[in-house]
């Protein structure tokens, strides 16, 4: 009763994209505009501007373009981190995949931190120093998630002075967007093993009581890492970057498949451009993705882009060395391992 033909509803929540498609169709029949708008940025985004991913009729976006541009984050070149994504559920789908990529990023970083701790015996402050080095503007891993990982590792309990990360339960909850991403990938027949591994790792982390019981019975054999610590840190660095490329390529492949099915005509370079600031996965890496899609909008897969494929070809052994070393010291490598497996499958030009 409060809406009239020509009015616009903005859904800025983490809505499931199929619900957005259904709602937009229903409201369109009543001449009411509906724009499903993915928003990423967390607390900092709320204060300084988020990345915004609007989907719906172009007419709806035109009505709010100036507002969205004014409130969105700005990349280093001053560009607003918002653009029209596509019809009906496109914006919420892209935001869902963003969150899935975020799950993958966090899991990959977590496995690397765990390996640095277990293989080298580094404490939280030492690992925080490594993260700070990797977050230098000139470093290929520079990103918000690397930054806050380092910051979080330094946090201490006031009373005891002990590192909070060592006193925090290793249980990770989730709100559902990662699960939606994996389910959508299964439906669209797009393999996203790194993101799936991240979701399953969160699920396994919640079985704390079971893990405590099983650890009393199963005693895995592990061996110490005896090589140069500096060499291992470099191995971890390069392995993480390759796994990150693999994970992002999986997310972009999923968006390509959805774009084809739903007729969204997603612009992958524009999406990467809008993720360069404001959102949780903002990183220097996204500028490279933007440039690669600008050079070749028909890129078959992100890993085929020259700047990424050359690094993979040169440093792939680092990912293999990392996985072996981590497993030798008892560190699970679900995400790092599946990133490597995904690459290995793509390398196979012969019959499997």
TrEMBL record:
Residue ranges of domain 6-phosphogluconate dehydrogenase C-terminal in the record: 91-352
Pathway: Carbohydrate degradation; pentose phosphate pathway; D-ribulose 5-phosphate from D-glucose 6-phosphate (oxidative stage)
GO terms, biological process: D-gluconate metabolic process; pentose-phosphate shunt
GO molecular function, one term: phosphogluconate dehydrogenase (decarboxylating) activity
Keywords, comma-separated and alphabetical: Gluconate utilization, NADP, Oxidoreductase, Pentose shunt
Keyword Signal: no
Pfam family, one: 6PGD
SMART domains, per database record: 6PGD
InterPro entries xrefs: 6-PGluconate_DH-like_C_sf, 6PGD_dom2, 6PGDH_C, 6PGDH_NADP-bd, NAD(P)-bd_dom_sf, Pgluconate_DH
Family, as annotated: Belongs to the 6-phosphogluconate dehydrogenase family.
Assembly description: Homodimer.
NCBIfam families the record matches: PRK09287.1
Name of the featured protein: 6-phosphogluconate dehydrogenase C-terminal domain-containing protein
Species, as recorded: marine sediment metagenome
Highest classification ranks of the organism: unclassified sequences, metagenomes, ecological metagenomes
